[in-house]
Amino acid sequence: MPSSKLRxxxxxxxxxxxxxAAVLAAVAAACAAAGPLAAQDQACEQFAWSVKRExxxxxxxxLRTAAPGSVLNGPDxxxxxxxxxxxxxxxxxxxxxxxxxADSYGGVIFIANLPxxxxxxxxxxxxxxxxxxxxxxxxxxxxxxxxxxxxxxxxSVRFELQPGPLTLQVSGAAVPSIKLAVLPAG
Length: 186
Fold this sequence. Notes:
Blueprint: H1 3-11, H2 14-44, H3 52-58, E1 64-66, E2 71-72, E3 79-82, E4 84-85, E5 105-114, E6 118-124, E7 129-134, E8 137-138, E9 141-146, E10 155-161, E11 164-173, E12 177-184
Parallel strand pairs: 1-3, 2-5
Antiparallel strand pairs: 3-12, 4-5, 5-11, 6-10, 6-12, 7-8, 7-11, 9-10
């Protein structure tokens, strides 16, 4: 701001100066409040592939909850899987990686039918190991991406899967519930 405008503002009545100061303070507060949200949005854009569909599913008010061992019809939307202590989980196969933390949680969920062969991404809201099992074999991941600073989405793993049933195993989670989505890669 040029010094002549500052002198004019300074010579303005005190009420005007207070109003201008209040407006500037409100603008500064709004910018400060938007900063963390903008940083979180930016973090969510930095996955190797888009997770916007999963964010929308995980934030839906009608997100379904599934108990361990449940059978879901298909990968049409996200769900919250209740987990239990890993020592109590009856895994179809041993998890592909030992847990990073003691006393972690896990669970198994069954998808009755994947409609077609292709690349699917399994996205999780929290840190956990994910195994995708078909025909008694663990599918190798074809890619993964993750961010610790994106709200509600922690990681996404891609698998080449065949049509038919799918078993998903979650292990090594630090939380007793996790949101998951199984979607064709987009």
